[in-house]
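Posting here for the record, re: biotin.
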Amino acid sequence: MMLFKERAIIHLDQTDSTNQYAWELLRQAPPPDGTVIVAQSQAQGRGQRGAEWESQPGANLLCSLVVYPHFLTAKNHFYLSKVVALAIQELLEEYLDKEVLLKWPNDIIVTHKKIAGILIEAAWNEQRMQQAVIGIGINLNQMEFNYAKATSTRLQSGKVWDAQDCLQSLLQKFEKYYFKLASGQLTELSKSYREHLYRLGQPTKFEYLGRQIEAMITGVDEDGKLRLHCADGQSLSCDLKEIKMWY
Ligand code: BTN
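Prediction output follows.
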């Protein structure tokens, strides 16, 4: 099954950010659906919530995928995150032979540490997603991090993993899940995402609108909000800006 007609891969030694590079391409000459930009190092790697993405040059997989998911609406846009997260989850679990979990909304977790992150930036037109740049950072061979909660496949397995091999497998898996999304297999995608959801059903501490609460994750809504059952009996649906997990 081939979803993308041609798989153009642009290799860069160094760039500010592969997401940034992808947006410049989109502005100048929109590349074919499924184009990948991959870099050895980034001077200004972007993370979620305006954070920086730390990566030693040449050590990890840093890439961005350009897609045109016109079939996505504001209501179901979070399925794109699910698809990417599931592809990375499957890839890492096969490679590491350890449980790999998905921390809502966009982190990939092994042994309670972050091994990969996703940053999706999208452009909209009348309620439909026109273009999306899917930034993916997977920590492969880096051994030391400034961020205490970070890990890598090498730290987890002792093995060195070539970023090109990792990218090839990632693209195959992404294509498989993206095809499910494009063909409307939403229930199956939600079920798989839920099966791997980090801290589902476990009492957990969060910062919610600036105050600390204790709550249990009960699931993720259709529109991507995190559903919580609080210790005080209240139910909440929270978006990314409102909530942060303490883990
Ligand atoms: C996160 O904060 O978890 C998201 C991290 C996403 C990092 C990747 S690395 C490749 C791509 N280019 C960027 O500037 N960011 C993403």
